[in-house]
Amino acid sequence: MNEKLEQKLLSKEIKPTTMRLLVLQQLMQRSSAIGLTELENLFGQADRTTLYRTLKTFEKNHLVHSIDDGTGVPKYALCMEGCECKPEDLHVHFHCTVCKETFCVTQTSVPMVQLPVNFELAEINMVIKGTCGNCKK
Q1: pLDDT higher for 86 or 38?
Q2: What is the distance of C-alpha 16 from the center of its chain?
Q3: CATH number, domain with residue 86
Q4: The pLDDT of residue 112
Q5: 90-122 b/e with 16+ CB inside 10 Å = b?
Q6: SS3 for the chain, per residue?
Q7: Which domain holds residue 42?
């Protein structure tokens, strides 16, 4: 497993360190996005700054994408293979208002919007809010 994690980091030109491998392992085990505080709680003794820098390195190298789900706290999830985090790579996210988890809906792309002349796209974010399958049971 460790070798697979190392290869994933190396393929994104990220030097495999112990903390990066541990964070990647946590991200791969999740079905929902994770915030910095939640990640910090998983690693009781880890330094918050190190975790933040790890997430930012992953984001910069297109291993994870950040999600603004409207809670005021950025969440992070693994990118799909081949993702460059360009507008055409973006997908919809679902935020459960019951359990507060945020999920990638990778089968639904964010629609491209025709902007007026002289408008420049900076980012696109589409979040659907409702109740997830686990909470609906």
Answers
A1: 38
A2: 19
A3: 1.10.10.10
A4: 83
A5: bbbbbbbeeebbbbbeeeeebeeeeeeeeeeee
A6: CHHHHHHHHHHCCCCCCHHHHHHHHHHHHCCCCEEHHHHHHHCCCCCHHHHHHHHHHHHHCCCEEEECCCCCCCEEEECCCCCCCCHHHCEEEEEECCCCCEEEEEEEECCCCCCCCCCCCCCCCCEEEECCHHHHC
A7: 2-136
Give the whole-number percent of the chain exceeding pLDDT 70: 99
> Per mean pLDDT, which range of 1-10, 24-33, 59-68 is the poorest?
1-10
CA dist 93 and 21 (Å) reads: 25
Sheet holding 102-109, edge to edge: 102-109, 91-96, 127-130
pLDDT in tens, 90-110: 899 999 999 999 999 999 999
Predicted model pTM: 0.88
Give the number of domains in the chain: 1
